[in-house]
Amino acid sequence: MAAETELLQAIKPVEHAEEDPREHLMFDPRPREEMNRMVMEAMTTTTRRYWIWLIGLGLAVVVLLFGAWGNMILTGMGVAGIRRPVFWGVFIVTFVFWIGISHAGTFVSAILRVFKAEFRRPFTRAAELMTTFGLAAGALYPLIHLGRVWVFYWMIPYPNARWLWPNFRSPLVWDFLAITTYLLSSTIYLYLPLVPDLAMARDRTKGWRHTIYKVLALGWRGTEAEWYRLRRAINIFAFAIIPVMFSVHTIVSWDFAVGMVAGWHSTIFGPYFIIGAILSGMAAVVTILFVLRSTMKHFDYFIRVEHFDALGKLLLVFSMAWAYFFFNEYLLSWYGGDAAVKQVLTLHATGPAAWVWYTMLICNVAIPWLTLWNKTIRRTPWAMFIITLLINVGMYAERYTIIPLTLGHQRSPFDWGMYNPRLTEISIALGTLCLFMFLYLLASRLIPLVPVWEVQEGQMAHRLRKVGKAEVPSVTELEE
Amino acid sequence: MAEQKAPQKWGLVVDLDRCTGCNACIAACSMENNIPFVGEDEVAYGRAMYWLYNKRDWAGEYPEVKPAFEPVMCQQCGNAPCEPVCPVFASAHSEEEQVNLAVYNRCIGTRYCANNCPYHSRQFNFFDHDLPEPMNSYLNPDVTVRRRGVMEKCTFCVQRIVRGRQKAAAEGREVEDGEIQPACVQACPAGALVFGDMSNPQTKASQMARNQRRYQLLEELGTLPRVTYLKGGGRYGG
């Protein structure tokens, strides 16, 4: 009996330090008018540093992106480093990277909304904006990487005198259609929950802002019928956009999986790419949340350590899922027994660019696994900032391994070759990063970055109830 | 034409026992097809333009090495991996000649076809390579001069096939075996390359292709190449 008690004592779970629920945003309500004012202030406050960044990034976009791209259009694709047999390089790598980033918005916003994860409320819009701008940056690449960008519209199905349609068997056409669909639907999905906040902003501004918000708020008054319809619409969209999101990155992966390149031709690529996209997208959400929290006024009220904590847990799960698929790719290739695939995969780890492969594994697996299990680290925003940046470095390395490093070592060893990016490619890749940040900075001062009504709705539903002497957090079911 | 006939399937046979690795085929191909000279720097960077390249493998340990040559051009696959991936049909199969065509003026330069070609026989125009006067007068008027940003590749000298068929049709006869020769075949001093209609079992090319030394490049991928190689070396010498 005594031994049993001892054993029970020994296996008793370690008690975490009791969290005060009042630290959570949902249990720390403020008057609605005050909160509205806080969001408005965050939106309208522009410091000197903000303008320096905005103008600097704008110039960088012009020089790095459009300058280098323009030069490439005028002189030829040869200013990029690609050479036979590696015909796709940094452009396609960065394209996949941005499409991956764009999965954050939908995942955080739609999936967490559907599953009613309450911690999502203050940063759904920040994530949705990432989707739209990530897509805007990524969607440039199918144009940038074209040898003759001036005839890009031949990929669009439009009626013409020759009765020529695009080749619907080509994954590039699927890509084009999928990305267009995703861009349109994610923009609508960004806009719908924005309407009440735009109306809020309309009622509190004068001048040019008032004029813009008046048009964009579509005459929102906040009647019961309007709320009912808005909720219905958001609900439908949240469900509808999830399959679109999954399809987009599956189709991006088919750009590779449909080809007969050894190391690409794999049925696992669809889910593998989606998990990778969600991992990189979620990591980017955390990165952005840290930046917002440390630069924007009042954001330490909305974005709290609990959010970093919750996203950190999700990141750990997705890092594990990614590692599973990564392992599976090797397992299936080994089982398939294709010598060329085996050669390619071996060369990833042992070839001249093996450091990319090791970077990928360290950043995507080792670092998250060693750090994110720890609650203290998850609740330290700057640590999360560094970890999530590294995860995205790792995801970039993953795409780099999959695209140029795989193309370089195909079935005919006589034709093996390596590829090194040149200045043009690096400049354009950095240019789209600047474009993303520029658009984000601009938008952060034009639309309310916190969905105030969602936060207020959540705070109304959350209460600390007294049960005996204890205060218990409780949530009211909002929807029918 | 009066009667519709089944399309001729043009094919090429490469007898590796006869190949000396002289590269005359490459030179002839470049002149026939207006292939640009890209310059020293670009060649050094690995962007030399050939539609036909001579794969040279070394057998044995140094110093007892023997070179083995294998001229590789577009294999004109019956089931070509480059065709379905092109978003704009710039890589298409011709029904008349049964070869894989590169439609230069339709190409937008996604380069997907080049990635997907297991033989790496497609080339990309990284820059414009204009020829100075009077060099441009050597250009073959039957072949398009490609601009920057488009893919190009061996077409089995489709301009010669078309001309041969037209000539035969004008004279009211069938195309004779050996009448049509791509530039590489015409230039080969050793007679290692033989071109002909593979759908007709009587042509020299089909007869050679039935040799027991036959193999095709990466046959196991199911691309159905139109080029047949006859293995060199072994008891046949080489």
UniProtKB/TrEMBL annotation, chain B:
The keyword 4Fe-4S applies. GO terms for molecular function: 4 iron, 4 sulfur cluster binding; metal ion binding. It comes from the Bacteria. Keywords: 4Fe-4S, Iron, Iron-sulfur, Metal-binding. The keyword Iron applies. Residues 10-40, 65-96 form the 4Fe-4S ferredoxin-type domain. It holds the Pfam family Fer4_7. This is 4Fe-4S dicluster domain-containing protein. It comes from Bellilinea caldifistulae.
